């Protein structure tokens, strides 16, 4: 637990994709308001921020074989 009642969960990338797909589209594409910001890039590592109406994700990424891969996600969920 971090900060009282906020659970720490570990999921693989595949588990995260399956979970999102299981809920189907949350909104119509024209109603989406996601914002993605690249916070920093240093060689083959980077950090980014994803803001949605219901949560904020901070991602660390690594570039391998010409493709960016997500290494970790720290998520704040708004109630």
Please describe what this structure looks like.
The chain has one helix at 13-22, and strands at residues 35-42, 45-51, 55-64, 67-77. It is mainly β. The longest helix has 10 residues, at 13-22. The chain is globular.
- The oligomerization state is single chain
Count of DSSP E strands? 4
Q: How many alpha or pi helices?
A: 1
Net shape? globular
User: Helical proportion?
Assistant: 10-25%
Low-pLDDT sequence parts = none
What are the main properties of this structure?
79 residues; mainly beta; 1 helix; 13% helix; 46% strand
List the helices and strands and how they pair.
Elements: H1 13-22, E1 35-42, E2 45-51, E3 55-64, E4 67-77
Antiparallel strand pairs: 1-2, 2-3, 3-4
Produce a short descriptive summary:
It contains 1 helix and 4 strands; from the N terminus they run H-E-E-E-E.
């Amino acid at each position: 637990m971090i900060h009282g009642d906020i659970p720490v969960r570990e999921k693989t990338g595949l588990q995260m994709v399956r979970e999102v797909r299981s809920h189907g589209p949350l909104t119509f594409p024209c109603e989406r308001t996601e914002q993605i910001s690249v916070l920093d890039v240093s060689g083959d590592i980077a950090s980014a921020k994803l803001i949605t109406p219901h949560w904020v994700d901070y991602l660390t990424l690594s570039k391998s074989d010409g493709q960016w891969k997500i290494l970790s996600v720290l998520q704040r969920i708004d109630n």
